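Dear all,

This email documents one entry for the complex benchmark we are building for the journal club exercise. For each entry we list the sequence lines for every component of the assembly. Then comes the predicted three-dimensional structure of the complex as a C-alpha coordinate string, followed by one or two observations. Please use this as the template for your own entries, and keep the labels exactly as they appear.
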Amino acid sequence: MDKPYSPFAADDRRPAAILIDAVERLGGSMRFSRDEEIYAQEEDADRLYRVVSGVVRTSRFSADGRRQIGSFYYAGDLFGFEVGSRHVFAAEALTDCEVRVARRGAIALAAGTDKIDEAILGATQMEMERLQAHVVLLCRRSAKERVGAFLAAHARNDPSAETELPMSRQDMADYLGLSMETVSRMLTRLQDEAIVDFGSTRRFQVRRWPALAAMAA
Amino acid sequence: MDKPYSPFAADDRRPAAILIDAVERLGGSMRFSRDEEIYAQEEDADRLYRVVSGVVRTSRFSADGRRQIGSFYYAGDLFGFEVGSRHVFAAEALTDCEVRVARRGAIALAAGTDKIDEAILGATQMEMERLQAHVVLLCRRSAKERVGAFLAAHARNDPSAETELPMSRQDMADYLGLSMETVSRMLTRLQDEAIVDFGSTRRFQVRRWPALAAMAA
DNA sequence: CGGTTAATTGAACGCATTCAACACGAGTGG
DNA sequence: CCACTCGTGTTGAATGCGTTCAATTAACCG
Protein backbone atom coordinates (compact mmCIF):
# COMPACT_ATOMS: atom_id res chain seq x y z
CA MET A 1 0.00 0.00 0.00
CA ASP A 2 1.49 3.33 -0.98
CA LYS A 3 1.83 5.97 1.65
CA PRO A 4 -1.12 8.31 1.40
CA TYR A 5 -0.43 11.97 0.98
CA SER A 6 -2.82 14.53 2.31
CA PRO A 7 -2.06 18.11 3.23
CA PHE A 8 -4.94 18.28 5.65
CA ALA A 9 -4.82 14.95 7.45
CA ALA A 10 -3.54 14.63 10.97
CA ASP A 11 -0.18 12.94 11.17
CA ASP A 12 -1.35 9.73 12.71
CA ARG A 13 -3.44 7.84 10.20
CA ARG A 14 -3.17 4.41 11.79
CA PRO A 15 -6.81 3.97 12.88
CA ALA A 16 -7.89 4.13 9.26
CA ALA A 17 -5.70 1.27 8.09
CA ILE A 18 -8.43 -1.32 8.34
CA LEU A 19 -10.81 0.89 6.38
CA ILE A 20 -8.31 1.60 3.68
CA ASP A 21 -7.73 -2.10 3.37
CA ALA A 22 -11.44 -2.94 3.28
CA VAL A 23 -12.28 -0.32 0.68
CA GLU A 24 -9.36 -1.55 -1.39
CA ARG A 25 -10.47 -5.17 -1.32
CA LEU A 26 -14.25 -4.80 -1.37
CA GLY A 27 -14.68 -1.59 -3.28
CA GLY A 28 -15.47 -1.01 -6.91
CA SER A 29 -13.57 1.48 -8.98
CA MET A 30 -15.18 4.57 -10.46
CA ARG A 31 -13.91 7.37 -12.64
CA PHE A 32 -15.08 10.95 -12.57
CA SER A 33 -14.15 13.77 -14.85
CA ARG A 34 -13.45 17.31 -13.75
CA ASP A 35 -16.33 18.98 -11.87
CA GLU A 36 -18.44 15.85 -11.93
CA GLU A 37 -20.47 15.13 -8.81
CA ILE A 38 -19.50 12.10 -6.74
CA TYR A 39 -22.31 12.45 -4.26
CA ALA A 40 -24.79 15.18 -3.55
CA GLN A 41 -25.60 17.31 -0.56
CA GLU A 42 -28.32 15.54 1.51
CA GLU A 43 -27.71 12.24 -0.23
CA ASP A 44 -27.62 9.04 1.85
CA ALA A 45 -24.18 8.42 3.28
CA ASP A 46 -23.96 4.65 3.12
CA ARG A 47 -20.69 4.39 1.26
CA LEU A 48 -17.04 4.93 1.94
CA TYR A 49 -14.72 6.37 -0.67
CA ARG A 50 -11.00 6.42 -1.22
CA VAL A 51 -9.18 8.56 -3.73
CA VAL A 52 -6.97 6.50 -6.04
CA SER A 53 -5.82 9.35 -8.24
CA GLY A 54 -6.80 12.98 -8.75
CA VAL A 55 -8.27 15.36 -6.21
CA VAL A 56 -11.74 15.55 -4.67
CA ARG A 57 -13.43 18.59 -3.17
CA THR A 58 -16.37 18.64 -0.75
CA SER A 59 -18.59 21.68 -0.80
CA ARG A 60 -21.86 22.99 0.43
CA PHE A 61 -24.18 25.72 -0.76
CA SER A 62 -26.22 27.65 1.77
CA ALA A 63 -29.71 28.85 1.03
CA ASP A 64 -28.39 32.25 -0.02
CA GLY A 65 -26.03 30.75 -2.56
CA ARG A 66 -22.79 31.19 -0.67
CA ARG A 67 -20.41 28.28 -1.05
CA GLN A 68 -18.32 26.69 1.66
CA ILE A 69 -15.60 24.18 0.85
CA GLY A 70 -15.33 21.41 3.42
CA SER A 71 -12.00 19.96 2.44
CA PHE A 72 -9.82 18.62 -0.33
CA TYR A 73 -8.94 14.94 -0.56
CA TYR A 74 -5.87 13.56 -2.28
CA ALA A 75 -4.68 10.14 -3.46
CA GLY A 76 -4.92 7.75 -0.53
CA ASP A 77 -7.45 9.78 1.45
CA LEU A 78 -10.71 8.35 2.71
CA PHE A 79 -13.81 10.48 2.46
CA GLY A 80 -17.57 10.26 2.61
CA PHE A 81 -17.84 9.50 6.34
CA GLU A 82 -17.78 13.10 7.52
CA VAL A 83 -21.08 12.88 9.27
CA GLY A 84 -24.18 10.85 10.14
CA SER A 85 -26.57 9.21 7.75
CA ARG A 86 -26.83 11.99 5.22
CA HIS A 87 -24.09 13.98 3.57
CA VAL A 88 -23.90 17.54 4.73
CA PHE A 89 -21.37 18.37 2.04
CA ALA A 90 -21.43 17.30 -1.59
CA ALA A 91 -18.33 15.79 -3.18
CA GLU A 92 -17.06 16.69 -6.62
CA ALA A 93 -14.08 15.76 -8.71
CA LEU A 94 -11.71 18.72 -8.67
CA THR A 95 -9.64 17.08 -11.35
CA ASP A 96 -10.30 13.96 -13.38
CA CYS A 97 -9.99 11.23 -10.83
CA GLU A 98 -10.39 7.61 -9.91
CA VAL A 99 -12.13 6.61 -6.72
CA ARG A 100 -12.75 3.31 -5.00
CA VAL A 101 -16.18 2.95 -3.42
CA ALA A 102 -17.46 0.37 -0.95
CA ARG A 103 -20.76 0.06 0.85
CA ARG A 104 -20.52 0.34 4.59
CA GLY A 105 -22.65 -2.77 4.93
CA ALA A 106 -20.20 -4.81 2.88
CA ILE A 107 -17.27 -3.63 4.97
CA ALA A 108 -19.12 -4.40 8.16
CA LEU A 109 -19.87 -7.93 6.95
CA ALA A 110 -16.27 -8.57 6.04
CA ALA A 111 -14.56 -6.94 8.97
CA GLY A 112 -17.22 -7.14 11.67
CA THR A 113 -19.43 -4.31 12.84
CA ASP A 114 -17.30 -3.56 15.86
CA LYS A 115 -14.14 -3.30 13.82
CA ILE A 116 -15.63 -0.96 11.30
CA ASP A 117 -17.17 1.24 13.95
CA GLU A 118 -13.85 1.49 15.70
CA ALA A 119 -12.07 2.34 12.47
CA ILE A 120 -14.66 4.86 11.35
CA LEU A 121 -14.51 6.40 14.79
CA GLY A 122 -10.77 6.84 14.43
CA ALA A 123 -11.09 8.33 10.98
CA THR A 124 -13.94 10.58 12.08
CA GLN A 125 -11.89 11.86 14.98
CA MET A 126 -9.04 12.76 12.67
CA GLU A 127 -11.49 14.59 10.49
CA MET A 128 -12.77 16.36 13.55
CA GLU A 129 -9.32 17.43 14.58
CA ARG A 130 -8.92 19.01 11.18
CA LEU A 131 -12.27 20.74 11.55
CA GLN A 132 -11.34 22.11 14.96
CA ALA A 133 -8.09 23.45 13.60
CA HIS A 134 -10.06 24.96 10.76
CA VAL A 135 -12.40 26.73 13.15
CA VAL A 136 -9.44 28.25 14.94
CA LEU A 137 -7.94 29.28 11.61
CA LEU A 138 -11.15 30.98 10.52
CA CYS A 139 -11.83 32.58 13.85
CA ARG A 140 -8.53 33.88 14.93
CA ARG A 141 -6.25 34.44 11.98
CA SER A 142 -5.69 37.14 9.40
CA ALA A 143 -6.06 36.66 5.67
CA LYS A 144 -2.30 36.44 5.23
CA GLU A 145 -1.99 33.80 7.93
CA ARG A 146 -4.82 31.75 6.46
CA VAL A 147 -3.31 31.73 3.00
CA GLY A 148 0.12 31.03 4.44
CA ALA A 149 -1.22 28.14 6.48
CA PHE A 150 -2.88 26.75 3.39
CA LEU A 151 0.35 26.84 1.41
CA ALA A 152 2.27 25.38 4.34
CA ALA A 153 -0.18 22.48 4.56
CA HIS A 154 0.35 21.69 0.92
CA ALA A 155 4.10 22.04 0.96
CA ARG A 156 4.74 20.29 4.26
CA ASN A 157 5.46 16.88 2.80
CA ASP A 158 8.39 18.13 0.82
CA PRO A 159 9.05 21.80 1.48
CA SER A 160 12.10 21.83 -0.74
CA ALA A 161 10.25 20.66 -3.84
CA GLU A 162 7.94 22.61 -6.06
CA THR A 163 4.33 22.20 -4.94
CA GLU A 164 1.31 22.13 -7.19
CA LEU A 165 -2.05 23.61 -6.20
CA PRO A 166 -4.77 21.73 -8.06
CA MET A 167 -7.58 24.11 -7.10
CA SER A 168 -8.62 27.54 -8.32
CA ARG A 169 -8.24 30.73 -6.31
CA GLN A 170 -11.99 30.70 -5.81
CA ASP A 171 -11.78 27.22 -4.28
CA MET A 172 -9.06 28.39 -1.91
CA ALA A 173 -11.15 31.43 -1.02
CA ASP A 174 -14.24 29.36 -0.28
CA TYR A 175 -12.17 27.08 1.90
CA LEU A 176 -10.49 29.87 3.81
CA GLY A 177 -13.49 32.14 4.18
CA LEU A 178 -12.00 34.92 2.07
CA SER A 179 -12.71 36.53 -1.26
CA MET A 180 -10.84 35.36 -4.32
CA GLU A 181 -9.21 38.76 -4.67
CA THR A 182 -7.88 38.72 -1.13
CA VAL A 183 -6.37 35.29 -1.66
CA SER A 184 -4.63 36.60 -4.75
CA ARG A 185 -3.36 39.68 -2.94
CA MET A 186 -1.99 37.66 -0.05
CA LEU A 187 -0.21 35.32 -2.45
CA THR A 188 1.55 38.20 -4.14
CA ARG A 189 2.39 39.60 -0.74
CA LEU A 190 3.92 36.30 0.41
CA GLN A 191 5.85 36.36 -2.83
CA ASP A 192 7.00 39.96 -2.29
CA GLU A 193 8.22 38.97 1.15
CA ALA A 194 10.24 36.18 -0.46
CA ILE A 195 8.45 33.53 1.56
CA VAL A 196 7.25 31.66 -1.50
CA ASP A 197 7.92 31.88 -5.19
CA PHE A 198 5.25 31.16 -7.77
CA GLY A 199 6.65 29.79 -11.00
CA SER A 200 3.20 29.73 -12.55
CA THR A 201 -0.21 30.48 -11.10
CA ARG A 202 -0.62 27.03 -9.60
CA ARG A 203 2.93 26.00 -8.85
CA PHE A 204 5.08 27.40 -6.09
CA GLN A 205 8.33 26.86 -4.31
CA VAL A 206 8.90 27.63 -0.64
CA ARG A 207 11.72 30.13 -0.12
CA ARG A 208 11.63 30.59 3.64
CA TRP A 209 10.09 27.56 5.24
CA PRO A 210 10.36 28.74 8.85
CA ALA A 211 8.39 31.87 8.07
CA LEU A 212 5.73 29.85 6.25
CA ALA A 213 5.54 27.08 8.84
CA ALA A 214 5.09 29.67 11.56
CA MET A 215 1.78 30.64 9.96
CA ALA A 216 0.48 27.08 10.10
CA ALA A 217 0.85 26.90 13.87
CA MET B 1 -34.28 10.33 32.46
CA ASP B 2 -35.07 13.96 31.88
CA LYS B 3 -34.97 15.28 28.38
CA PRO B 4 -31.61 16.88 27.75
CA TYR B 5 -31.54 20.46 26.63
CA SER B 6 -28.77 21.78 24.50
CA PRO B 7 -28.89 24.75 22.18
CA PHE B 8 -26.07 23.37 20.05
CA ALA B 9 -26.91 19.68 19.76
CA ALA B 10 -28.37 18.26 16.60
CA ASP B 11 -32.00 17.34 16.96
CA ASP B 12 -31.54 13.60 16.89
CA ARG B 13 -29.73 12.52 20.03
CA ARG B 14 -30.72 8.84 19.94
CA PRO B 15 -27.28 7.37 19.29
CA ALA B 16 -26.06 8.71 22.58
CA ALA B 17 -28.74 7.04 24.68
CA ILE B 18 -26.55 4.10 25.61
CA LEU B 19 -23.74 6.41 26.66
CA ILE B 20 -25.97 8.61 28.72
CA ASP B 21 -27.24 5.53 30.44
CA ALA B 22 -23.77 4.09 31.04
CA VAL B 23 -22.34 7.32 32.43
CA GLU B 24 -25.38 7.60 34.64
CA ARG B 25 -25.00 4.12 36.09
CA LEU B 26 -21.23 3.75 36.18
CA GLY B 27 -20.11 7.30 36.65
CA GLY B 28 -19.11 9.12 39.76
CA SER B 29 -20.42 12.53 40.60
CA MET B 30 -18.19 15.58 40.80
CA ARG B 31 -18.81 19.20 41.63
CA PHE B 32 -16.98 22.14 40.20
CA SER B 33 -17.28 25.76 41.10
CA ARG B 34 -17.31 28.63 38.67
CA ASP B 35 -14.21 28.83 36.42
CA GLU B 36 -12.77 25.63 37.82
CA GLU B 37 -11.02 23.38 35.35
CA ILE B 38 -12.62 20.01 34.61
CA TYR B 39 -9.88 18.78 32.34
CA ALA B 40 -6.93 20.49 30.71
CA GLN B 41 -5.81 21.05 27.17
CA GLU B 42 -3.55 18.12 26.12
CA GLU B 43 -4.76 15.96 29.00
CA ASP B 44 -5.54 12.29 28.34
CA ALA B 45 -9.08 11.83 27.12
CA ASP B 46 -10.03 8.55 28.76
CA ARG B 47 -13.21 9.68 30.42
CA LEU B 48 -16.71 10.61 29.39
CA TYR B 49 -18.63 13.37 31.10
CA ARG B 50 -22.23 14.35 31.39
CA VAL B 51 -23.53 17.61 32.77
CA VAL B 52 -26.00 17.11 35.58
CA SER B 53 -26.49 20.77 36.40
CA GLY B 54 -24.82 24.02 35.47
CA VAL B 55 -23.00 24.86 32.25
CA VAL B 56 -19.61 23.75 30.94
CA ARG B 57 -17.42 25.55 28.44
CA THR B 58 -14.60 24.07 26.36
CA SER B 59 -11.83 26.40 25.29
CA ARG B 60 -8.41 26.45 23.80
CA PHE B 61 -5.55 28.92 23.89
CA SER B 62 -3.29 29.25 20.89
CA ALA B 63 0.39 29.97 21.20
CA ASP B 64 -0.21 33.68 20.76
CA GLY B 65 -2.70 33.77 23.61
CA ARG B 66 -5.86 34.06 21.58
CA ARG B 67 -8.74 32.06 23.00
CA GLN B 68 -11.18 29.97 21.03
CA ILE B 69 -14.31 28.55 22.63
CA GLY B 70 -15.19 25.09 21.38
CA SER B 71 -18.71 24.83 22.68
CA PHE B 72 -21.03 25.15 25.63
CA TYR B 73 -22.60 22.12 27.29
CA TYR B 74 -25.84 22.15 29.26
CA ALA B 75 -27.63 19.79 31.65
CA GLY B 76 -27.95 16.44 29.93
CA ASP B 77 -25.14 16.97 27.44
CA LEU B 78 -22.28 14.56 27.02
CA PHE B 79 -18.83 15.99 26.52
CA GLY B 80 -15.17 15.02 26.65
CA PHE B 81 -15.17 12.79 23.56
CA GLU B 82 -14.56 15.55 21.03
CA VAL B 83 -11.43 14.02 19.67
CA GLY B 84 -8.78 11.28 19.83
CA SER B 85 -6.74 10.29 22.82
CA ARG B 86 -5.84 13.74 24.07
CA HIS B 87 -8.09 16.69 24.65
CA VAL B 88 -7.61 19.46 22.14
CA PHE B 89 -9.83 21.76 24.17
CA ALA B 90 -9.87 22.24 27.91
CA ALA B 91 -13.15 22.11 29.81
CA GLU B 92 -14.12 24.54 32.56
CA ALA B 93 -17.15 25.11 34.69
CA LEU B 94 -18.89 28.19 33.35
CA THR B 95 -21.18 28.19 36.37
CA ASP B 96 -21.05 26.08 39.48
CA CYS B 97 -21.96 22.66 38.23
CA GLU B 98 -22.32 19.00 38.87
CA VAL B 99 -20.90 16.49 36.42
CA ARG B 100 -21.00 12.73 36.19
CA VAL B 101 -17.78 11.13 35.04
CA ALA B 102 -17.09 7.58 33.88
CA ARG B 103 -13.96 5.97 32.51
CA ARG B 104 -14.26 4.76 28.97
CA GLY B 105 -12.80 1.44 30.01
CA ALA B 106 -15.54 0.89 32.57
CA ILE B 107 -18.23 1.67 30.04
CA ALA B 108 -16.65 -0.66 27.53
CA LEU B 109 -16.58 -3.46 30.09
CA ALA B 110 -20.20 -2.97 30.98
CA ALA B 111 -21.64 -2.36 27.55
CA GLY B 112 -19.14 -4.11 25.29
CA THR B 113 -16.47 -2.46 23.20
CA ASP B 114 -18.52 -2.59 20.03
CA LYS B 115 -21.50 -0.94 21.66
CA ILE B 116 -19.52 1.86 23.11
CA ASP B 117 -17.67 2.51 19.86
CA GLU B 118 -20.96 2.67 18.01
CA ALA B 119 -22.42 5.04 20.55
CA ILE B 120 -19.36 7.25 20.69
CA LEU B 121 -19.32 7.31 16.91
CA GLY B 122 -22.89 8.55 16.88
CA ALA B 123 -22.17 11.19 19.45
CA THR B 124 -18.99 12.23 17.68
CA GLN B 125 -20.85 12.62 14.42
CA MET B 126 -23.39 14.88 16.04
CA GLU B 127 -20.55 16.94 17.41
CA MET B 128 -19.06 17.07 13.95
CA GLU B 129 -22.29 18.29 12.45
CA ARG B 130 -22.23 21.12 14.92
CA LEU B 131 -18.65 21.89 14.03
CA GLN B 132 -19.40 21.95 10.31
CA ALA B 133 -22.29 24.30 10.89
CA HIS B 134 -19.94 26.41 12.98
CA VAL B 135 -17.39 26.61 10.19
CA VAL B 136 -20.08 27.83 7.82
CA LEU B 137 -21.21 30.36 10.39
CA LEU B 138 -17.71 31.70 10.87
CA CYS B 139 -16.84 31.69 7.21
CA ARG B 140 -19.85 33.08 5.54
CA ARG B 141 -21.87 35.18 7.91
CA SER B 142 -21.79 38.72 9.20
CA ALA B 143 -21.39 39.71 12.82
CA LYS B 144 -25.10 40.41 13.15
CA GLU B 145 -26.01 37.03 11.69
CA ARG B 146 -23.59 35.24 13.99
CA VAL B 147 -24.96 36.87 17.09
CA GLY B 148 -28.52 36.32 15.86
CA ALA B 149 -27.83 32.65 15.20
CA PHE B 150 -26.37 32.32 18.67
CA LEU B 151 -29.45 33.79 20.29
CA ALA B 152 -31.70 31.69 18.08
CA ALA B 153 -29.89 28.52 19.13
CA HIS B 154 -30.45 29.38 22.77
CA ALA B 155 -34.06 30.38 22.40
CA ARG B 156 -35.16 27.64 20.07
CA ASN B 157 -36.49 25.29 22.72
CA ASP B 158 -39.05 27.76 23.89
CA PRO B 159 -38.99 30.91 21.77
CA SER B 160 -41.89 32.42 23.63
CA ALA B 161 -40.21 32.24 27.04
CA GLU B 162 -37.49 34.41 28.42
CA THR B 163 -34.06 32.90 27.74
CA GLU B 164 -31.03 33.13 29.96
CA LEU B 165 -27.49 33.43 28.65
CA PRO B 166 -25.13 31.98 31.24
CA MET B 167 -21.94 33.19 29.56
CA SER B 168 -20.21 36.55 29.37
CA ARG B 169 -20.01 38.70 26.25
CA GLN B 170 -16.37 37.73 26.00
CA ASP B 171 -17.31 34.05 25.95
CA MET B 172 -19.80 34.69 23.19
CA ALA B 173 -17.20 36.67 21.28
CA ASP B 174 -14.60 33.91 21.55
CA TYR B 175 -17.15 31.40 20.36
CA LEU B 176 -18.31 33.49 17.42
CA GLY B 177 -14.93 34.80 16.33
CA LEU B 178 -15.78 38.41 17.12
CA SER B 179 -14.67 41.02 19.59
CA MET B 180 -16.63 41.53 22.76
CA GLU B 181 -17.53 45.07 21.66
CA THR B 182 -18.96 43.89 18.37
CA VAL B 183 -21.11 41.31 20.12
CA SER B 184 -22.44 44.02 22.36
CA ARG B 185 -23.12 46.34 19.43
CA MET B 186 -24.98 43.66 17.49
CA LEU B 187 -27.09 42.84 20.52
CA THR B 188 -28.21 46.44 20.87
CA ARG B 189 -28.87 46.52 17.15
CA LEU B 190 -31.06 43.41 17.31
CA GLN B 191 -32.83 45.10 20.16
CA ASP B 192 -33.27 48.34 18.21
CA GLU B 193 -34.76 46.34 15.36
CA ALA B 194 -37.25 44.86 17.83
CA ILE B 195 -36.09 41.32 17.11
CA VAL B 196 -35.19 40.62 20.71
CA ASP B 197 -35.68 42.38 23.98
CA PHE B 198 -33.13 42.27 26.77
CA GLY B 199 -34.65 42.55 30.20
CA SER B 200 -31.23 42.45 31.80
CA THR B 201 -27.79 41.87 30.31
CA ARG B 202 -28.12 38.10 30.34
CA ARG B 203 -31.83 37.57 29.89
CA PHE B 204 -33.76 38.17 26.71
CA GLN B 205 -37.10 37.62 25.13
CA VAL B 206 -37.62 36.97 21.43
CA ARG B 207 -39.92 39.55 19.83
CA ARG B 208 -39.85 38.46 16.21
CA TRP B 209 -38.98 34.81 16.00
CA PRO B 210 -39.14 34.50 12.22
CA ALA B 211 -36.56 37.23 11.80
CA LEU B 212 -34.30 35.64 14.38
CA ALA B 213 -34.74 32.09 13.11
CA ALA B 214 -33.86 33.25 9.62
CA MET B 215 -30.38 34.09 10.87
CA ALA B 216 -29.81 30.60 12.20
CA ALA B 217 -30.34 29.01 8.80
C1' DC C 1 -22.94 52.02 50.27
C1' DG C 2 -18.08 51.90 47.78
C1' DG C 3 -15.27 48.96 45.04
C1' DT C 4 -14.88 45.87 41.30
C1' DT C 5 -15.95 43.58 37.24
C1' DA C 6 -18.87 43.35 33.13
C1' DA C 7 -21.11 45.71 29.50
C1' DT C 8 -22.07 49.56 26.54
C1' DT C 9 -20.93 53.36 23.65
C1' DG C 10 -17.93 56.53 20.87
C1' DA C 11 -14.29 57.68 17.54
C1' DA C 12 -10.53 56.44 14.62
C1' DC C 13 -8.30 53.09 12.24
C1' DG C 14 -7.31 49.12 9.26
C1' DC C 15 -8.27 44.96 7.00
C1' DA C 16 -10.90 42.63 3.80
C1' DT C 17 -14.60 43.22 0.42
C1' DT C 18 -16.67 44.97 -3.63
C1' DC C 19 -16.74 46.59 -8.11
C1' DA C 20 -14.25 47.47 -12.03
C1' DA C 21 -10.49 47.35 -15.19
C1' DC C 22 -6.79 44.93 -16.93
C1' DA C 23 -3.42 40.90 -17.78
C1' DC C 24 -2.49 36.33 -18.84
C1' DG C 25 -2.88 31.65 -20.88
C1' DA C 26 -5.07 28.13 -23.40
C1' DG C 27 -7.76 26.92 -27.16
C1' DT C 28 -9.96 28.02 -31.73
C1' DG C 29 -10.38 29.46 -36.20
C1' DG C 30 -9.14 32.55 -39.86
C1' DC D 1 1.10 32.84 -37.30
C1' DC D 2 -1.86 36.10 -35.49
C1' DA D 3 -6.45 37.69 -33.90
C1' DC D 4 -10.16 36.47 -30.99
C1' DT D 5 -12.38 34.62 -27.13
C1' DC D 6 -13.24 32.70 -22.78
C1' DG D 7 -11.95 31.47 -18.28
C1' DT D 8 -8.87 32.56 -14.65
C1' DG D 9 -6.04 35.49 -12.11
C1' DT D 10 -4.18 40.06 -10.78
C1' DT D 11 -4.43 44.80 -9.56
C1' DG D 12 -6.55 49.41 -8.31
C1' DA D 13 -9.76 52.49 -5.84
C1' DA D 14 -13.50 53.16 -2.86
C1' DT D 15 -16.38 51.48 0.60
C1' DG D 16 -17.73 49.32 4.84
C1' DC D 17 -17.50 46.19 8.53
C1' DG D 18 -15.37 44.89 12.55
C1' DT D 19 -11.47 46.07 15.60
C1' DT D 20 -9.00 48.78 18.81
C1' DC D 21 -8.48 51.99 22.28
C1' DA D 22 -10.66 54.86 25.47
C1' DA D 23 -14.31 56.64 28.23
C1' DT D 24 -18.68 55.88 30.44
C1' DT D 25 -22.39 53.28 32.44
C1' DA D 26 -24.52 49.29 34.52
C1' DA D 27 -24.51 45.21 37.34
C1' DC D 28 -22.63 42.66 41.13
C1' DC D 29 -20.88 41.76 45.82
C1' DG D 30 -18.59 42.67 49.72
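Observations: The first helix of chain B runs from residue 17 to 26. Residues 142-143, 178-179, 181-182, 185, 200-201 of chain B lie near DNA strand D (CB under 10 Å from a C1').
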